[in-house]
Design brief:
alpha/beta; 10 helices; elongated; binds 3'-deoxy-guanosine-5'-triphosphate; binds magnesium ion; phosphoprotein; Sig_transdc_resp-reg_receiver
Length: about 300
């Protein structure tokens, strides 16, 4: 309930005189009051108008107040609405039962008007505080999730950073080893990137890196992942992927990057990458072995003249 809205209070009582008294009392305090005289009607009204608070009689012919309360508490859409019982029953047993059904308070009839108002105000304030707390908590959870996601991401290129990539790769390596599935690693490095920096400056170099990383990220499947391994070097984790499929993907990436026309404020730039691919072998005991072989393959691709794939 936002602070500035008039609280809506539903009053449920089968005795017209009680209903009238309570209604006048609360209308006098400028509450938005909705009176109803039957249990079933009360449940329908709560679902329709979502009051901020309910004053609920116990003894009613069609459905007693306990049942009304239990029904509303069982429904996640209505179970947060505070219910104050207001009844002529004043045995301890009756009161205890009211609380056990989910009531927040109990007022005996004949009631003292000032006491009813004081309890209503208190429970409205408590409900409002609870809603504010829940809202703040939801926002905090969202902020924490965002923070955690940011901590995994390379800020420049938007792909995973090296440490998070390792975390994922280690996990996938364990799965692949356990179930004897194929797994491939592809590493790539931008060719003559130093020239791009030298010719256009670091900021444009950054833009080129970002474009290449995002192009590669778009080419892979959702089960795959891409991380920034270092400067202008990237790494792909390809679960359930054979060496042959890994080489095909690498070739597709090579072509996609070579075809890029990167429009910058200093003109249109093209770039190429060299790629190395390695697959999991039965003797591998850790993911680093595969990464090592992919790195050697990448080095071989550089020696072979760049803009090519070696596996
Ligand atoms: P090769 O084809 O052999 O890979 O040649 P290269 O020029 O790409 O390789 P080299 O290792 O000589 O140079 C890489 C350059 O990448 C040097 C470094 O300053 C630059 N670099 C690394 N990280 C970044 C970055 O985040 N932004 C920019 N703009 N440049 C970077
Ligand atoms: Mg009654
Ligand atoms: Mg390079
Ligand atoms: Mg490099």
């Amino acid at each position: 309930m936002p602070d500035n809205r008039t609280p809506t209070i539903l009053i449920v009582d089968d005795t017209p005189a009680n209903l009238l008294l309570l209604t006048q009392l609360l209308v006098g305090q400028s509450y938005d009051v909705r009176p109803v005289t039957q249990g079933r009607q009360a449940i329908a009204a709560v679902r329709a108008i979502r009051p901020d608070l309910i004053l609920l009689d116990i003894r009613m012919p069609d459905m007693d107040g306990y049942t009304v309360c239990q029904t509303l508490k069982a429904d996640p859409e209505t179970n947060q609405i505070p219910i104050i019982f207001i009844s002529a029953l004043d045995d301890t047993e009756d009161k205890v039962r009211a609380f056990e059904c989910g009531g927040v308070d109990y007022i005996t009839k004949p009631f003292q008007p000032a006491e009813v108002l004081a309890r209503v105000r208190t429970h409205l304030a408590l409900a409002q505080a609870r809603i504010a707390l829940e809202t703040a908590n939801r926002e905090l959870q969202r902020a924490l999730a965002r923070e955690a996601e940011l901590a995994r991401i390379d800020w420049l290129t938007g792909v995973y950073n090296r440490s998070h990539f390792y975390e994922l790769a280690t996990y996938e390596f364990a799965i692949a080893t356990r179930y004897d599935q194929p797994l491939a690693i592809c590493m790539f490095d931008v060719d003559h990137f130093k020239h791009i920096n030298d010719q256009y400056g670091h900021l444009i170099g950054d833009q080129v890196l970002r474009t290449i990383a995002q192009t590669a990220a778009r080419q892979i499947r959702t089960a795959d992942c891409i991380g920034r391994f270092g400067g202008e070097e990237f790494i792909l984790l390809l679960p359930n992927t054979t060496m042959e499929a890994g080489l095909n993907l690498a070739e597709r990436l090579r072509v996609a990057v070579a075809a890029l026309e990167i429009h910058t404020e200093k003109g249109t730039i093209t770039a190429t990458i060299s790629l190395g691919v390695a697959g999991r072998q039965p003797a591998d005991t850790m993911i680093e072995r595969i990464i090592d072989r992919a790195d050697q393959a990448l080095y071989a691709a550089k020696r072979q003249g760049r803009n090519c794939v070696v596996g």
